Amino acid sequence: MDKLEFKNGYLWLKLREMKHKFTYQDYEPRMKLAMERYKVCEEKKSEEKIKKEIALCKKYWGCFPLHYFRYNLYRKDMELSQAELINYVPEFLFYNLFLHYYPGEQYSVMLNDKNIMEQLFRSVEINQPHTICKLINGRLYSSDLKSKSFYEVYCELMEKQYEKIFVKPVDGKGGQGILIFHLSEGNKYVNDSIEFDENILIEIGKKNNYIIQKGINQREEISKIYPNSVNTFRIATENKKGKTRVVCSALRIGKGGNEVDNASQDGIVVGIDSVTGKCMDYACTEKTEIFYEHPDTKFIFKNYEFVDWNSIKNLALDAAKKLPQFTYLGWDIALAEEGPLAIETNLDFGLDLYQIALGGLKEAFNITDPEKYWKFRGENFG
What we know:
CATH topology of the largest domain: D-amino Acid Aminotransferase, Chain A, domain 1
CATH class of the largest domain: Alpha Beta
Order of helices and strands: HHHHHHHHEEHEEEEHEHEEEEEHEEHH
CATH architecture of the largest domain: 2-Layer Sandwich
Number of strands: 14
Number of helices: 14
Number of domains: 3
CATH superfamily of the largest domain: ATP-grasp fold, B domain
Distance between the termini: 14 Å
Structural class: alpha+beta
């Protein structure tokens, strides 16, 4: 690549970052809420100090630090050293530069469709929830893509008597679009007034593809924190040159009667020490609200240590080894009665979920020279 091409690539990247600065809150609700919090906050640092800290972050990362507002770093009670300030990683750099630097993006199609991901997990023997059937282009299939009738599905449900079944859109994110059906009296699976039958599958199958899985019965250790949702561990792994490690860990928890644990659906998240399996002092919401105990169950988070942490962590590490195409992955793992199960994995996993719960993660990801990621993406722009 000659100098002109590199300059064009670098200019393209800088223009993209500038657009991100001015438009991110227009399409990202969490950023919009963060800016609204900043405007009404009465406990800000001095204007001079805020400007100095923003300039410090901008100089180090090479982009405007929107995360300074996202994580409330402007507040008086966020008295951080310079090292602690720059330890928070900007989302623009993480998603647009850092992850692009490492292998994996070209294989993302394997993770973008939950039906394909289920096949991938099965092919490399990653423990996962039982799949009842798949709804693809309006037709039902078994997990190994053999044609399946609704009568066969119905017979399995009547025989096994699962307490719940989950109907998930293959491209769903943040728990959006999931339908949860409960076994009721009369051996019917219902979601409010909707009954799980062939007609509902025909109707939803007109718009999307789905994977239908057995509901997970989680261990009492997890259920006592909050019983209404399957509370999942979000574990980020790194796989470099065949060596895997856990980068950071958290537990997502439902609340308020919700049956999903996603932060985007009013769930909370508590950071976990990846070595010991101990919870941090408090859990947080996406809006950075703090809970020292669960608002529904009164479960106290501080220093709680998960008994089966090593088996949970080892599932993530073993699974990461089996997918060497990817350097960084975010795993959703449930602790079921039969042991840890991988619900799914994501390439573009939620950095903000971790940094809200754990603080800055520059050191955890071993980011020592942001400029090399700018240079790499500038040389490979497009």
